[in-house]
Structure formats: structure tokens, C-alpha cells
Amino acid sequence: MIKSLESLRGNGSPLIEAVHAREVLDSRGNPTVAVTVATSSGAVEEAMVPSGVSTGANEAVELRDGDERRYGGKGVRKAIEAVNEILGPAIEGFEVTDQRTIDAKLIKLDGSANKSNLGANAISGVSIAVARAAAASVSLPLFRYLGGPGAATLPVPMMNVINGGKHAEGALAFQECLIVPVGAPNEAEAIRYGSEVFHAMGRILHERGLQTLVGDEGGYAPPLDSPQAALDLIVAAIERAGYRPGGDVAIALDPAANNFYRDGKYFPLSRDRSASVDDMIALYTDLCDRYPIISLEDGLDESDWSGWQKLTEALGKRIQLVGDDIFVTNVEFLQRAIAEGVANAILIKVNQIGTLSETLDCMTMAQQAGYGTVISHRSGETEDTTIADLAVATGARQMKTGSLSRSERTSKYNRLMAIEDQLGAAARYPGAKLYHMPSTGRS
Ligand code: PGA
Ligand code: ZN
After folding, report:
1. CATH code, 2-140
2. Residue 349 catalytic?
3. Which pLDDT score is estimated for 443?
4. Is residue 57's pLDDT more than 60?
5. CATH topology of domain 156-434
6. What's the gap between Cα 403 and its chain centre?
7. Is 194 close to ligand 1, i.e. is its CB under 6 Å away?
8. pTM confidence score
9. Most distant pair of Cα atoms in the chain: their distance
10. Residue 412 bears catalytic tag
């Protein structure tokens, strides 16, 4: 008697029956990839791929059509075709829970070092849709499927309430000024603290006659001429909302220094006033002395490894130093960082590297080396909430998903609250325990 395919495969796990991709829009109104995976158990799940603009040079390549007649060249039909004609057919019949074999197949089919043949947008769409379909096939919430019974720690959110840099042209050179509700007792309260501070800031801006429009990640984007002005506003907003700066709500920065680095010099304030690495370190040290800053991401350019080393020596024992553009969720760069004493935490973005398996490997390496991990959205997002589940599943303990406005941002906060609700008494919120807390607020 001929055995069924399922019995030949051994454990009867549901199989991938169909994979289909199509073009959808992200939060900036640009096209992106949506992938649907259907399995033999009847599960049908979709993933939508986000897209950054403040990207690292070594990120996996996002494939765009370059056909100016469609979406100004930003169409993703080539990536869609790669899914529908190559990646999808190649994994049909695979056990949907066999994520590593599937991801290895996707990587092999692309064949390049940086996913430039078929596109990291095509590959990450399939990889994430497979995980979502697998969770649904075995009737588990995604965080539980990926993380197992031990997954119960919610991430401390880093909420980007002042947008600048490439996410808000004409505003501050620093890309992100974030609030971190370290003193909240749980996730839902952390989100409430964040929302109240965000609205307090709106009122303060209004009173001062400053613009209250928001940038790409939903934070306010007033025209400010210095990081100090942004930090003063944040401290005022924290106080106005009735919280203690530092104790209840601390501050994090992502200057995204790549974007103001030219010819070996930094331009953190204006185009005509340059700063050396030592000036930058002095600036950050001064900001840490004066404000309750607990985390600094991409304080220096991605190519400035010696500068990063100095920065880590100067501030690495005092605050969290997060590498985003410099590490691009890639074990090769993280390995070098660990060896050279660069940074003490890493930002994690699935589409920076391309597959879920590679992302998990990178997080494992970071966690084993004692590096902090921050799961992150992109500035161009969708209603997909996978990163919220991923943050809980991996015990990342920190997550960056924008401000407290715009549904592509709040959908992730809403998902975190749903997970916390589902976990009930088992839910944990790490809060201040994660950081070296500044002993004072402003001096
Ligand atoms: P991006 O930026 O999503 O525009 O690349 C986000 C970040 O720098 O953290
Ligand atoms: Zn960043």
C-alpha cells in the first residue's frame, strides 16, 4: 500500500499547500509584499513586510521594480513574482512547522550573500507567513508557538515621541527621541504612561505655538534646533503627565548618526557645524549627565568601528548602547562587535537579514554574549503585528514600535496588551531591572 505523504514525513505535521504573494501598501503609501500561506490543516495566514528608509548599507536587499511608470519605481512586482513562481512552489509540501529547513531553502534559492536575487522583502514575507501559518495550524498563538511555555515576558516599550532625521524632514537632526516607561508595573500600564506623556507633549507644543504634526513613526515633529530642546520637551511632558522623569519614564535616543555623517565628520546640529567622534562622545556624555537617558542607539556611523569602541568605553557601563545600522541583525557584524567590545545591545529587524531563523540565531548570539536585544518595527509599517509576538516569544525584553498614534504603530501595542491579557498572572514586565538607572533626573 502506498503511504500518504504525511505518514512518510513522520510526524503528521500540517503541510504547506499554497503560497501566494501580492502587492499591498505600507504606512507611507508605498507598495510592499504580502504573503499568504495555506496549510493542509486549513490554516490560512498572511504576513506583510515593513520597509525602512534609514537603512544600513549592509542590510539584506529590498527588491524594488525600478519601473518609474508604477509607484515611482517603488513597485514590488519582481518580489511578488519571486514568491509566486520560485519560493512558494519550492516549499509546497514541506511541513509548515519545519521553519529552519524552509528558511534554509529560501536562502539557497536566492543564492546571494545579501538576498539581492529574489529580494529580502520576498524572502522575509514567506518566512514570517510560514511561522504564522504554522502557529495557526497547531492552534497556538504565535508567541506561544515560537516561544514555548516559557514565553511570558513582555517587552519594555521604547516609544518614539519626537521624530526627526529621515523620518521627518525639516525637524531635528536626531531621528528618534523615545520615552521608556521603566516604572510601570506591567505592559498595559506602560502603554498608558506612554500615551499620557505623548498627549501631554501635544498640549505643551500647542501652548508654545509649535507644530503638532506627526512624523513617519507617529511622534511629533516640531522644528527644533538641538537635541537638548527635544529632551527638555520630553522631561516637561513626563512631568506634565504626572510622572517622574527617570523613575517612572526614562529616555532613549536613536540619533541614526549615519544620516549626519559625511567624510569622517558628524553634523548633529546643522549642515555647517561639524563634530569629531570625541565631540560626539562629549555631547552624549553631557546629555546623559543632564537627562535620564538609559539607552542610545546608532550614536555613531555604521562604518566608524573605532569610534564605537571609544563610545562603548566611555558610556557602555552607564547606559545601553544599541547597534542598528552597524549590525543589521547579522551574526557576522555582531560577532565582530562582541570580539572588539563594541556596543552592549542590538536592534533586531527580521527584514534586515531576511529570515526568521537567521533572526533567532542573531538573538541567541546576542543573549549569550550578554547583549541586550530590542525587537524593532521599520519606519514604513503595516497592520502586521508579528513583532509583538516575536518580542514575547524570544524574551527580547525590549521593543521599539513608534509613538502612541497611527494604527500601524498602535496595532503592535494593542497586540502586546492582548498577549498580556491572555497570559494573565503569568505575564512579566521587566521594567527598570533592565537598565542602569540614572540616580538623578536633570541636574
Ligand atoms: P528605518 O529606521 O526603519 O527607517 O530604517 C528605523 C531605525 O533607524 O531604527
Ligand atoms: Zn535605528
Report:
1. 3.30.390.10
2. yes
3. 34
4. yes
5. TIM Barrel (3.20.20)
6. 13
7. no
8. 0.96
9. 81
10. no
